[in-house]
């Protein structure tokens, strides 16, 4: 996933954008990941994917990517996120 935006949402923590279309993926639980910055630096982190409740519902449901183990300032736009234990 190429990161286009990073938000620090109160009560949710770090949320990465864009979201991932729910029709294409099936996430469950926490995943280990590697964040690779545009300069090639790699950082380990953990991610959880959730589908937020929205009213009215969006035309395309998307997973939100919640990241832990890094601060917002450590995640430059243009970084890539790679899941290391995704089996889905």
Structure description:
The chain is 0% helix and 47% strand. With 88 residues, the chain is mainly β. It has a 6-stranded antiparallel β-sheet with strand order 1-2-5-4-3-6, with no helix packed on it. The chain starts with a strand and ends in a 5-residue tail after the last strand.
Fraction of residues in helices? under 10%
Overall pLDDT metric: 91
Q: What is the strand content?
A: over 45%
Largest sheet: 6 strands, antiparallel
> Radius of gyration in whole Å, from Cα?
13 Å
Q: Which regions contain 5 or more consecutive residues with pLDDT less than 50?
A: none
Q: Strands of the largest sheet, in order across it?
A: 1-2-5-4-3-6
Report how far the terminal alpha carbons are from each other.
Answer: 15 Å
The succession of helices and strands, N to C, reads EEEEEE
Shape verdict: globular
How many strand segments? 6
Going by helix content, strand content and strand pairing, the class is mainly beta
The number of helical runs is 0
